[in-house]
Amino acid sequence: MQDDVLLVHGGSPLEGEVRVKGAKNLVPKAMVAALLGEAPSRLRNVPEISDVRIVKGLLQLHGVAVREGEEPGELLMDPTQVEQANVADIDAHAGSSRIPILFCGPLLHRLGRAFIPDLGGCMIGDRPIDFHLSVLREFGAVITKRPEGLYIEAPNGLKGTKVSLPFPSVGATEQVLLAAVRAEGTTELSNAAVEPEIIDLICVLQKMGAIISVTTDRVIRITGVSKLVGYDHRALPDRLEAASWACAALATHGDIYVRGARQLDMMTFLNVFRQVGGAFSIEDEGIRFWHPGGPLNAIALETDVHPGFQTDWQQPLVVALTQATGLSIVHETVYERRLGFTSALNQMGATIQLYSECLGGTPCRFGQRNFQHSAVISGPAKLHATDLDIPDLRAGFSYLIAALAAEGTSRVTGIDLIERGYEDFQAKLEALGARVELPMRVAESVA
Ligand code: EPU
User: Fold this and answer.
1) pTM above threshold 0.85
2) Which of 45, 124, 162, 311 could form a disulfide with 22 if both were Cys (CB 3.0 to 4.6 A apart)?
3) H helices within 252-373, ranges in order?
4) Statement: residue 107 has pLDDT above 90
5) Is residue 371 within 6 Å of ligand 1 at its C-beta?
6) 122 is catalytic
7) Cα-flanking dihedrals φ and ψ of residue 323, to 5°?
8) Which are the contacts of 202, defined by CB distance < 8 A and separation ≥ 6?
């Protein structure tokens, strides 16, 4: 596909301002939550990304009227006429997202059954859904697996339960929340994920009438209620996109003001950014990130669940670490295959060696299992342009950063994957002075 190829001319710093809107990892889930209400909901600060389009389509298939509000980025969702959707239609709409699995609880409450197709999402690990299925069964759901997907029913309704997750999974925690808020009785979830996007989802549900408490020991308690209303909510800003721009500023010797970025959600990232030698200043409406000149510092880093260093920050930061002086060590403990993207960076002149051993002390599920989930990065490296094929969302943006930091013109394919999570990224790059172009435009300018 011609418009799926981006030419990136590297070698100049990114400078200027970008704005981040609502978080990709909250907005689609808040949209699913709207299904639980008996009245319309209004979500603000919604980015135009493909995960939002997919969930919008799925809601519409289930009878939810979705329309844009008056202010930009405002979505109005009316779930008063929810109805069963056709299995083939659901399958056709859901293809490239992992969000459909979260429709289970709301659809079971509203319609007594749900169909969930095979899930998409980034191939950064096996990404099983065993935790989801196990907690749904605890609530009393009956799951039948067929080749086309999962058929789920709740013949006696969903009942509150006591569950503990084997790992603080974001998706499984959301599954429990969306099922428990209208289940009969109370639910206690231990070893829950407490990412800022989850806390924001809890805020949405509380506005709808839910009763949820979060304790400091990763335990979430939910008292089921029989009825929820609509909500009016402004989505929290995307701290993952904000960090991506911060890394772009660092790797290109640039200076980017990220309007909308919020300190509280990014404290762990900011500490690491400072250790590496990046500079930032917190302002009322955003955060400015820049390269202060001089060499960057090599660091040892481990990804972890919140409040640790978020795995989605890892890939863009690795690109910046190729410019640091000395040996950096990265231990990825959330996804077993999230370092594969580094082979392309090596083709560009980086020196990154992967290891299957755990290079760090954070408890990890991947040691001794032949997953190359630790990296040693030797820098600084002079990067040069190459052909890049994007394997997943964050790797995709990281490749753009590397191509912008490199000498020469890189040809990047698979950019539609970046659109899953970065609104209008080409326009934002151009606003920062990046020289990027679709081949079609190159051809036109030559003609
Ligand atoms: N896991 C299981 N079984 C399950 C569920 C998860 O083994 O049933 C494992 C996963 O394989 C993984 C770990 O638990 O090793 C964590 O997965 P989690 O469930 O937390 O991830 P997720 O809900 O599928 C969301 C984000 C990811 C983000 C992770 C971690 C969305 C749509 N996706 O995924 O975002 O990396 O949480 O914070 O919210 C991204 O934005 O690029 C991205 C991949």
Assistant:
1) yes
2) 45
3) 267-276, 311-321, 342-347
4) yes
5) no
6) yes
7) -100, 0
8) 177, 210, 212, 214, 220
Predicted confidence band at 124 (pLDDT cuts at 50, 70, 90)? low
The residue ranges of DSSP E strands in 338-429, in sequence order, are 351-355, 374-379, 387-389, 409-413
Of 250, 204, 206, which Cα lies nearest the Cα of 225? 206
- Show the beta-strand stretches assigned E in 291-392: 296-297, 300-302, 324-331, 351-355, 374-379, 387-389
Q: What angle do CA 239, 243, 247 make, to 5 degrees?
A: 175
Nearest CA to ligand 1 atom 39: 25
Percentage of the chain beyond pLDDT 70 is: 96
Mean predicted confidence (pLDDT) in 200-224:
97
Radius of gyration of the chain (CA): 22
Which is catalytic among the residues 104, 122, 247, 364?
Answer: 122
Q: What is the dihedral of CA 256, 261, 266, 269, to 10 degrees?
A: -10
Q: Report pLDDT digits (tens) over 296-320.
A: 999 999 999 999 999 999 999 999 9
CB-based contact 133:104 (threshold 8 Å)? no
Give which of 38, 108, 35 is closest to 66, Cα–Cα. Answer: 35
Q: Is 376 exposed, middle or buried (0-12, 13-18, 19+ CB in 10 A)?
A: middle
Residues 6+ apart with CB under 8 A from 130: none
pLDDT for 444: 53
- CA atoms of 56 and 74, how far apart (whole Å): 13
Question: What distances in angstroms separate CA 5 from CA 334, 411, 417, one per listed residue?
Answer: 30, 7, 12
- Ligand 1 near 200 CB (within 6 A): no
Query: Is 373 near ligand 1, meaning CB less than 6 Å away?
Result: no
In the reported structure, the alpha carbon of residue 169 is separated from the centroid of ligand 1 by a whole-number distance in angstroms of: 6
Rounded to whole angstroms, the Cα distance separating 208 from 227 reads 9
Beta-carbon count within 10 A of 71 CB: 9
Mean pLDDT over 402-425 rounds to 96
Long-range contact pairs involving 429-432 (C-beta distance under 8 Å, separation at least 24): 429/14, 429/400, 429/404, 431/16, 431/17, 431/18, 432/14, 432/15, 432/16, 432/17, 432/18, 432/248, 432/254, 432/256
Q: Helices (DSSP H) in 209-323: which residue ranges?
A: 239-251, 267-276, 311-321
* Phi, psi of 309, rounded to the nearest 5 degrees: -80, 115
End-to-end CA distance of the chain: 20
Query: Average pLDDT in the 33-60 region?
Result: 96
Contacts of 343 (CB under 8 A, 6+ apart): none
What's the rounded Cα separation, in Å, for the pair 275 and 317?
A: 12
For residue 279 the two structure tokens come to: 């500079």
Contacts of 402 (CB under 8 A, 6+ apart): 251, 319, 322, 344, 345, 348, 350, 383, 388, 410
